[in-house]
Amino acid sequence: MISKDLLVEVVESQKDDLNKKLLGLERTELEDYSLLQSHALIISGIRRCGKSTLLVQLLMKQFPQAFYMNFEDPRLYGFALADFQKLDILIEELDDKTIFFDEIQVVNGWERYVRQKLDQGLSNLVITGSNASLLSRELGTKLTGRHVTRELFPFSYAQFCQFEDLKKSPESTRDYMSLGGFPEYLKSKRQELLHQLLDDILLRDIAVRYRVRDVKSLQNLAIYLISNVAKPVSGNNLRKTLEIKATSTVMEYFSYLEESWLFFFVSKFSYSQRKQLVNPKKVYAIDTGLVTANTRSFSGDDGRRFENMVFLHFRRSYSEIYYFSEKGECDFVVFDRKGLVALVQVCWELNMDNIKRELDGLWEAMRFFDQKEALLVTFSQEDQFVQDGYAIKVLPFYQLPV
């Protein structure tokens, strides 16, 4: 139990700390955030991607009189569900009933309080947290659909260039591919931060939450995946390669890794849901800097990290992405709710050895989807190819629209 006097002290000191904070690069994601009184806004994403900073930026810019509390404050250790009643007294004294809760997942049963506030219709609620419970499918059950989730990624290429004061160019493209977009890491360039981040996700967000007993197998799987981004993977093959007891265990680990935002698993496009499930999936990591720091076997293979980077560019805007593979292959088939958005091929460098393969896979996908235009993303080349009324535009990564 926490006394009301201590809560007042914590609220006032945390608000003072907010006023003194240097908030760094303003995230462009702020422009799209709006609150619904009947729904909680949950800002979700991988650890250390800047959720807490975004929360504070949103508060200071749009809701300076809102109620704010970070539950990871050591003075709040032992905060229990009953203590929310004391918070209500403090909130009722404010003119602005907007509430910002950071790291609320440390309080057992927090969902019940949030649901109560939503049912009362008294407050706007914004929530962030690092624990996988705020990202998992369980949240929809606990809040019965009374929430809107917004994704936050590490810095995009444009944000990276702004943060590092660089121009968009092949040189900054290579820098971004190597360093990635985690804000804290970019400040220090100390790779041990990215080593520790991977360990925290595997041990704290996954192993503890899901009671994983064979932690070593989970770690081996994660290192294998991060060392093989942009490659197809299957549960059965990895079971044999990594000597994990059952394919079902590998698939469970896949879901945990995806829910923690560490990896994305992209299905082969098919109009058959069953075929999507049985075909191998291509794996991509949340950040290429995390790949650089933790991989065991990249051997200078820039192509796969580059493909991972292009994937993240489109994944920031679209959640439904497939790969196309028939006679040839097209790396990304991108959809929104209205239908097909883009066909995208990725090639580090077009040359005489690969140009036919890269173009043929894209032509095939264009004919299959009857899509007259497609995009081929390269490191630094720019070109255009036209065939039978179909047009492929070749663009370097740094020229992709934001």
Give a short overview.
The chain is an alpha/beta fold and 402 residues long. 42% of the residues lie in helices and 19% in strands. It has 16 helices and 14 strands.
Radius of gyration: 23 Å
How helical, in percent, are the residues? 40-55%
- For the biggest β-sheet, the strand order reads 9-10-11-12-14-13
Which descriptor suits the 3D outline? globular
Order of helices and strands: HEHEHEHEHEHHHHHEHHEHEHHEEEHEEE
Pfam family, one: DUF4143
Keywords: ATP-binding, Nucleotide-binding
Protein name: ATP-binding protein
GO molecular function: ATP binding
Description:
With 402 residues, this protein is an alpha/beta fold. It has two domains: 4-151, Rossmann fold; 157-399, no CATH class. The protein is built from 16 helices and 14 strands. Strands 9-10-11-12-14-13 form a six-stranded mixed beta sheet. Strand 11, helix 16 and strand 12 (373-378) form a beta-alpha-beta unit. Helix 9 (192-207) crosses helix 14. The radius of gyration is 23 Å and the shape is globular. The mean pLDDT is 91.
List the helices and strands and how they pair.
Blueprint: H1 4-20, E1 40-44, H2 51-62, E2 67-70, H3 84-92, E3 98-102, H4 110-120, E4 124-128, H5 138-142, E5 147-151, H6 157-164, H7 170-179, H8 183-188, H9 192-207, H10 215-226, E6 232-233, H11 235-242, H12 247-259, E7 263-266, H13 273-278, E8 281-285, H14 288-294, H15 302-315, E9 320-325, E10 329-336, E11 339-346, H16 355-369, E12 373-378, E13 383-387, E14 390-396
Parallel strand pairs: 1-4, 1-5, 2-3, 3-4, 11-12, 12-14
Antiparallel strand pairs: 6-8, 7-8, 9-10, 10-11, 13-14
Helix pairs in contact: 7-14, 9-10, 9-14, 11-12
